[in-house]
What does this fold into?
Amino acid sequence: MHIPDGYLSPQTYIPLYAAFAAFMGIALKKVKDSFSAKNIPYLGMASAFSFLIMMFNVPIPGGTAGHAVGAGIVALILGPWTAMVAVSVALIIQAFLFGDGGITAIGANCFNMAVILPFVSVLVFKLVRGKATAGWRVSIAAFLSGYVGLTAAALVAAVEFGIQPLVASSGGRPLYAPYGLEVAVPAMMIEHLLIFGIVEGLVTMVVLGFFLKSDPGSVYAMQGAKQ
It folds into this structure.
């Protein structure tokens, strides 16, 4: 899902940089105000976890590739704003040191995987969980939060690809990503709906189950639930 350089036009990546910068400014303030010093190691571990899981990048026929992100489970445990910071750090390091994702596309990649994914995951979890504090409903909510969060991020990335022939072309020839929405959306969504979304969902469900057994009070998404 990492977008490389040359796929997005300035008409697309500049506004996405601005949108990401605005979200990150809010996130940094919220983390500074609410995150205690003793929890700083958790932020580092969350970033390292996301970095590691994203390195398992599998090429898919059609010129794309997919992977889990880990942002869903980070958002459920530490909150979506903290997840945004942790995942963004991982994405920026990957772009500058490993060439995984383009420099011009950092704003887009962070917006997709560090903004869209965490907030969708938390929203889906809370909607599906309802008032449940344990059991099958919480497990299903965790799975769907990761699954839907990742596929939503993939859909946004696919739209960013697919609109390039419309927003940046010369003489009818695309200057950046050459395929329209009719190609980009299926190419991205099929693999994430059938493979990577399931992986993200399973990772979210298993890791959340561990935290709920060992330290349920530390889970952001369960705060306020009656035990």
Summary: The mean pLDDT is 89. The helical segments are 10-34, 40-54, 71-78, 80-98, 106-129, 136-162, 164-167, 181-214. The chain has eight helices and four strands. The beta strands are 58-60, 64-66, 169-170, 173-174.
